[in-house]
Amino acid sequence: MMHDSTRALSDIIGDLLRELTSLFRSEGQLARTEVSEKLQNLGSALGLVAAGFVILLPATIILLEAGVAALIQVGFSPAIAALSVGGAVLLVGLVLLMMGVNRLKRVNLVPDKTLRQLQRNFAIVKDATHEHDVQRAA
What we know:
By secondary structure, the chain is mainly alpha-helical. It has one domain (20-124). The chain is built from 3 helices and no strands. Helix 1 (9-73) packs antiparallel against helix 2 and helix 1 (9-73) packs antiparallel against helix 3.
C-alpha cells in the first residue's frame, strides 16, 4: 500500500476533483432541500392568511355596518357615521398592511446553512492545497 506522501500528484488531484464533485453535488441537494422547506413554510403561511381573510371578510363587513348603524342611532348623520367607521378601518388596515409587508421583507429564501457549509468546505480545500504545496516545496 502506498503512503500518501508518495502518491503521484495526478492521483491526488484526481481524488481531490472526485471529492469536490461529490461535495458540490451533496451541497447542491442540501441547498435545494433547504429552499424547498422555506418555500413550503411560506406557502402554508400564505394559505392560512388567505383562508383567514376569506372567513373574516364577511364578518368584518357585518360588524362595520353595525358600527355605522350604532353611530346613526346615537345621533350621527349617516354620512358622518359611514366616514367615521370607514376612516378608522382604513387606518387599521394600512397599519396591518405595512406590518405584513415588513414581515414579508424579512422572509429569507437564501439557503444560509448551505452557503456557510460551502464556505467552510472551500476553506478546508484551500488549506489542504496550501499544505500540499508547502510540503511539495520542502
